[in-house]
Design goal:
With about 500 residues, the protein is mainly alpha-helical. About 55% of the residues lie in helices and about 5% in strands. The protein has 2 domains: about 5-195, Fumarase/aspartase (N-terminal domain) (Fumarase C, Chain B, domain 1, Orthogonal Bundle); about 210-410 and about 415-500, Fumarase C, Chain A, domain 2 (Up-down Bundle). It has helices spanning about 15-20, 30-50, 75-85, 95-110, 115-130, 145-155, 170-180, 190-195, 200-230, 240-245, 250-260, 280, 285-305, 330-360, 380-395, 420-450, 460-465, 480-490, 495-500, and strands at about 5, 25-30, 90, 130-135, 135-140, 160-165, 170, 315, 320-325. The strands form 4 sheets. Strands 4-6-7 form a 3-stranded antiparallel sheet. A two-stranded parallel ribbon has the order 1-2. Strands 3-5 form a two-stranded antiparallel ribbon.
């Protein structure tokens, strides 16, 4: 099993995926340990001197003017976690919670939060031993960070709440006991340091970006099969066309399509069958390319965020200062997640129109709905309905969450980001878009069955051979949801890209 060493500054999205999905161990760097110890000394000094500092010797939110005595600081932190545990709805997936825990640990490792080293190590130990807090998915405004969901994470750290351990849901107290981890008694500043940040929206965002990058590569590959099945024109993918409009994503997609179509006799040249293709074929580089550029922008935002200190107040040990600011505000992630959702919706939009071109005999030279015995059989008629339904749902989900704000905490927190809603919506959009691409894959391969005697491109042949292990050609009507789900699993698992890479076809 691999490991990820965190220092607060160098975490990658791949690291997040490894910990969240692959169970990598997490270790804290020695430099980070020193920074955490240094910053904790500042907090203890302020508490001992009974200096009035937000969140250390005061209440929270609109209670920031209420001074708390030194004797009550532990009660203050415990009450904070219990009172803020107001999440509702279904639990977040285990992989998301593991990502949340990692990101919170990495933020604390920067040394600007003032937690004790043992508290941070407890969070890391929970990750490594598989104690996963049950965190309801709803209840965050995205400023002051993800308060409610992160409070549910901390509940387990203090021996309360609920957790998953070895596949079973149980009380947090029992999970910690069975894992051999001592619950934490929170000290001054620690409760606030653990829940005041953007780690929930950002954790979901990291997994979203990783999945989106894999999906758009798969979409390039699968759209090339459709291009071949419809005897598409390769001239539109000429390097010269892309160079006079040099968006990086567009250039990459055109290269990917040409790699996939190498050695194909299905593909045509300009004027051979027709002069121009419809936009859904001809403009694949322009549309997929713009989506890629959007994903790249979102990735850049997330890489900055996962290596940032996002709680409040922040401790600056070198100066001995404690400053209240607004790094918990999720606006950067909210806007990025809305953008990602819109971009990925477009993967599905253009794919569904390619599906229509595959099943509609008025737009191609194929049997209606890709079945030879139409009438007796409906073929892939209703598969297109399903794709259209998913696309329509995505249009609703793509409405930006970040344009909304509701004041909270007696108008002290009077503008919020709704970033966690944006991240959750984007996750749903990605799932829907993957299913649409799965339907395109199923339909494009079925169309290939009617092109005997013509040679598939190198990439198309690889994918054809892979998918036909799980999904046989459609000769008579059968339960297509089974085939759709199989194609979905092949795409989501990354098998499409792995099969291509195994044959030396590396898509960028």
């Amino acid at each position: 099993m691999g490991k990820v060493i965190i220092d607060g500054n160098n975490l990658t999205i791949e690291d997040v995926v490894h910990v969240a999905r692959d169970g990598y161990r997490v270790e804290l760097s020695s430099i980070a340990e020193e920074r955490v110890l240094h910053s904790r000394k500042i907090v203890e000094r302020y508490v001992n001197d009974e200096k009035v500092v937000y969140g250390i010797t005061t209440g929270f939110g609109n209670f920031s003017d209420v001074v708390i005595s030194k004797e009550d600081t532990e009660i203050l932190q415990k009450n904070l976690i219990m009172s803020h545990s107001c999440g509702v709805g279904k639990p977040l997936p285990e992989e998301v919670v593991r990502a949340i825990m990692l990101l919170r640990a990495n933020a604390l490792a920067k040394g600007f939060s003032g937690v004790r080293l043992e508290t941070l190590k407890t969070l890391i130990e929970m990750l490594n031993k598989g104690v996963t807090p049950v965190i309801p998915e709803k209840g965050s405004l995205g400023a002051s960070g993800d308060l409610a969901p992160l409070a549910h994470m901390v509940l387990v750290m203090i021996g309360k709440g609920e957790a998953l351990y070895k596949g079973k849901r149980m009380s947090g107290e029992k999970a910690m006991k069975e894992a051999g981890i001592a619950p934490v008694v929170l000290s001054s500043k620690e409760g606030l340091a653990l829940i005041n940040g953007t780690q929930v929206m950002t954790a979901i965002g990291c997994l979203n970006v990783y999945d989106s990058k894999r999906l758009i590569k798969s979409a390039d590959a699968i759209s090339s099969i459709t291009l071949e099945a419809l005897r598409g024109i390769i001239d539109a993918f000429d390097d010269r066309v892309q160079m006079v409009r040099p968006h990086r994503g567009q250039m990459v997609v055109a290269k990917n399509i040409k790699k996939m179509c190498e050695e194909s006799t299905l593909i045509t040249r300009q004027g051979e069958i027709r002069v121009q293709d419809a936009y859904t074929l001809r403009c694949i580089p322009q549309v997929h390319g713009a989506i890629r550029d959007a994903i790249e922008y979102v990735e850049d935002v997330l890489i900055r965020e996962i290596n940032s200190a996002t709680d409040n107040p922040l401790i600056f040990p070198d100066d001995g200062d404690v400053i209240s600011g607004g790094n918990f505000h999720g606006e950067p992630i909210a806007l990025a997640m809305d953008f990602l959702g819109i971009a990925v919706s477009e993967i599905a939009n253009i794919s569904e129109r390619r599906i229509e071109r595959l099943v509609n005999y008025q737009l191609n030279d194929l049997p209606p709905f890709l079945t030879e015995k139409g009438g007796l059989n409906s073929g892939m008629m209703i598969a297109q309905y399903t794709a259209a339904s998913l696309v329509s749902e995505n249009k609703v989900l793509a409405h930006p969450a970040s344009v909304d704000s509701i004041p909270s905490s007696a108008n002290q927190e009077d503008h919020v980001s709704m970033g966690t809603i944006a991240a959750r919506k984007a996750r749903e959009i990605i799932e829907n878009a993957t299913r649409v691409i799965a339907i395109e894959l199923m339909a494009a391969l079925q169309a290939m069955e009617f092109k005997k005697g013509l040679k598939k491109g190198k990439g198309s042949q690889v994918i054809y051979d892979l998918v036909r292990k799980y999904v046989k050609p459609l000769e008579e009507d059968r339960e297509l949801y089974i085939d759709i789900n199989a194609c979905f699993d092949i795409i989501k698992s990354g098998k499409v890209l792995e099969a291509l890479e195994k044959e030396g076809i590396i898509l960028e």
